[in-house]
Amino acid sequence: MFGLVLLVGIPVLFLTGALSYAAYNPDLGPHNDMTPDKGLLGFYLFDWPTHPYWLYRLTQGVHVTLGVVLVPVLLGKLWSVIPKLFEWLPVRSVAHGLERLSLLMLVGGVIFEFVTGILNIQLYYVFPGSFYTLHFYGAWVFIAAFVVHVCLRLGRMSRALGSRSLATELRTDLAHTVPEPPDPDGLVPTAPAAPTMTRRGAVGLVGVGSLALLVVTAGQSIGGRLRNTALFAPHNRNPGGGPMDFQINKTAAAVGINPAHVGPAWRLEVRGRAPTLVFTRAQLLAMRRHDALLPIACVEGWSTDDQHWSGLRLTDLAAMAGLPGAGSVLVESVQSRGAFRSVVLRGNQIHDPRSLLALRVNGADLSLDHGYPARIIVPANPGVNNTKWVHRLTFRT
Ligand SMILES: Nc1nc2c(c(=O)[nH]1)N[C@H]1C(S)=C(S)[C@@H](COP(=O)(O)O)O[C@H]1N2
Ligand SMILES: [Mo]
C-alpha cells in the first residue's frame, strides 16, 4: 500500500520539480543557469508560459506540500523492508549486482532528495554547493532507479494487493495479526517476533502522520485564512499589517543592499537599440502606469495571495528602448553579490501586459524589503526571478 501511494506521488513530485526547473528558464543562459553542465538532462526545456498567472504557485505548491506529506509514507515503506535494507550480500551475478546498485541509487536518492528539499524549505542552506544543482542531479539519479524498481516490482505489488482484501486487513485486531507468508526474496523475516501493532495501526499511523503534515504545511501555498495554520512553514505569518503585509524572503539588509544605491541617487537605466535611457523614480512615477493582480510564488513552496501591483509595463519599456519586439531582457539589481541579483526574462514574459516594473504595491510605494525603488513582477514567474531593487534593464532582440 505504501508502495502504491509512492508510485502515484513520486511521479507527481518529479514532474512538478521538472516544471520548476523549466520555469527558471535556464536555457536563457548563464544568468539563469545554475546547472551549466546539464547537457541532455535539459532536453525538454520550453518557453515557460505566463498563463494562467497562478501556474507556478500551483505547481510548486503541489511539489513542496506533496513532498512533505509523503515523508511518513516513505518512512513506512523503508521500515517495511528494513531487514533487506542493510543487507550486504556478496553479488551473486551481474543481474543481482545491478539490482543492488539500483536499490542503492533508489534508497540513497530518495533520502537525498527529501532531505535536501526539506532543509531548503526550512531555510537551512547548509549544502556543500547550490541546493538547486544538488536537487536537480539528485532527482535524475533517483528517478532512473525508481523506473528500474517499478519495472522489476510492479507485478509483485499488484499480486500482493490482489491477494487479500483491504477491508479484512483493516478489521483484523492484534490477536489475529499474523506474519506475512515467506516469500522467494526473503523480504519476510524467517522467525518474526510477535506483532506489537496491527496492520490497521501501521497504516493509520502513517496516514495520520501525513494528514497532520498536510494541515501544518498546505496553508503557506493556499493562503487566505489558512495561512495561519501553516505552523511548519517559516513564512507562515503575514509580517506586520498594512499594504506591505505579505512575506519577504530576503530583506534588503540580508543581501547587503547599500542604502545609498536605493536613495535619491538611484536611477533606472534602460538599454536597447536606442541610446541608454536614464530615469529618476519621479520620472517613472509620472509615466502611464498599469496595474496587475499577481502573487509571489517561491520555489520554497510558500506563496502570497494576489497583490495589487502598479508600475510600468515591460513591453512599453522595450518599445521606449527601441526594441518593441524584444525577445529577452537582462534585469540587473543594485545588489552586488548573491545568485539572484540578475535574471533574464523571455519575450513572452516581456510582452504579457501584466508584466511590470512595479513601483507601488497595494496603493503604497514599495517598501525597501519588497524591492524599492523598483522590482519585477511577471505572471507565473518563480519568485526568485521577480528581481527586487532593479536598476538596469537591457532589452535584446
Ligand atoms: N535582487 C534580488 N531580488 C530578489 C531576491 C534576491 O535575493 N535578490 N529574492 C527573490 C526571491 S527568492 C523571492 S521568493 C522574491 C520574494 O519577494 P518578496 O520578498 O517581495 O516577497 O524576491 C525575489 N527577488
Ligand atoms: Mo524565492
TrEMBL record:
<keyword id="KW-1133">Transmembrane helix</keyword>
<keyword id="KW-0472">Membrane</keyword>
<feature type="transmembrane region" description="Helical">
    <location>
        <begin position="202"/>
        <end position="222"/>
    </location>
</feature>
<feature type="transmembrane region" description="Helical">
    <location>
        <begin position="137"/>
        <end position="155"/>
    </location>
</feature>
<dbReference type="Pfam" id="PF00174">
    <property type="entry name" value="Oxidored_molyb"/>
</dbReference>
<dbReference type="InterPro" id="IPR000572">
    <property type="entry name" value="OxRdtase_Mopterin-bd_dom"/>
</dbReference>
<keyword id="KW-0812">Transmembrane</keyword>
<feature type="transmembrane region" description="Helical">
    <location>
        <begin position="62"/>
        <end position="82"/>
    </location>
</feature>
<feature type="transmembrane region" description="Helical">
    <location>
        <begin position="103"/>
        <end position="125"/>
    </location>
</feature>
<dbReference type="InterPro" id="IPR036374">
    <property type="entry name" value="OxRdtase_Mopterin-bd_sf"/>
</dbReference>
<feature type="domain" description="Oxidoreductase molybdopterin-binding">
    <location>
        <begin position="265"/>
        <end position="396"/>
    </location>
</feature>
<protein>
    <recommendedName>
        <fullName>Oxidoreductase molybdopterin-binding domain-containing protein</fullName>
    </recommendedName>
</protein>
